[in-house]
Amino acid sequence: MTKGTTKRMIIMLIVAGVIVGGVVWFQGFKTAMIGKAIKGMANPPQTVSTTVVEMSRWQPTVQALGNLRASQQASLSAQVGGIVTAIHFHSGQKVRAGELLVQINDAPQRAQLAQLQAQLGQVQAQLELAKINLRRDEAQLRAQAVSQAVVDTDRANVSSGESQLKALREQINAQQAVIAQAAIRAPFSGVLGIRQIDLGQYLAPGATAVTLQQLDPMDIDFTVPQSQIGLIRPGMHAEVATNAAPGRTFAARVMAIEPQLDPSTRNLKVRARIANPDGALLPGVFATVRIDDGQPRDYLTLPNAAVAYNPYGATVFIVKNAGKGPDGKPRLVAEQRFITTGPTRGDQVAVLSGLQAGDTVVTAGQLKLRNGTPLLINNSVQPANSPNPQVPNS
Known about the structure:
Blueprint: H1 3-42, E1 46-52, E2 54-58, E3 61-77, E4 82-87, E5 94-95, E6 100-104, H2 107-142, H3 148-181, E7 183-185, E8 190-192, E9 202-203, E10 208-225, E11 237-241, E12 249-257, E13 267-274, E14 286-292, E15 297-303, E16 308-310, E17 313-324, E18 330-345, E19 348-353, E20 360-364, E21 375-377
Parallel strand pairs: 1-21
Antiparallel strand pairs: 1-20, 2-15, 3-10, 3-14, 4-6, 4-9, 5-8, 6-7, 8-10, 10-13, 11-12, 11-14, 12-13, 15-19, 16-17, 17-18, 18-19
């Protein structure tokens, strides 16, 4: 190998080494830069809104939605069928208990009643005669003017007459009951609904002629979850409000509690009674019931939107100070914390454990957070946090 050839080979090896070294250095540089980029992208600062946990005074309250119903209601119908011969009411009329509303043709029954009453008169006359004969013959027997057999016959006649009289009276009572079934009367005082029959119409047994509802007082049925069973007792006062009577609240009293929970919903059915002298409330109206129980209590309070409810428990993210950042400002990071929640009111929830007064809690933006995520605070927009939210009027 000549000297020139050796020199060229050395130059080629040097060039190849430089190229290989450059490629290796570039690959290492690229890997390092990609790692830094991924590291920077993995946990970028996230903008969230926050609130400070504060102690609030709560009045233990049960709030529920219910439906109003009449304290008494019935669909009035006849027990026997027949032609309607008289209607003694008009739709929407107020009536008193026992008032005659509808008369069904009872002429055949009344004719039969008259026959029975005529027979009753005849039997009564025969019985009186039998008693007179008995008294006369008993006097004759004492004077030995008649035999004992005559007196015994008189006594048998009196006994037979009394039996006939009793049987006729029972038949008359039964006939009067049949006649009474042909008349529809108000079973209680209340307000009638819309008339569903016409004069001369055949009314079948059990067919509704009109509805009757007692509107004062009214009842409201509502349900409460099993967690609030201990707050409900018969006799408790309640307040009822409905948009059917805007701006008004109605006093109510708990009348009855269902002795068992609904197994499908685990809710307890409750009924309260409301005075309704002016008829402002009607059956079927949707209303809100509020019941206060006991003395006010103090709870740590959060907006309900700040809490994430999971199968394994409720969690929140609190804001922690992780020292100062490169710019000298406090470096804020997120920390997930399990909490125990209590009762709710409006948009708020009570926190029983896991937080302390003064803790700063994230109220919006939790879905993009994990432990250690840097935070940027922007509280220009806050979630609803009212203890008594109101639906705006449209």
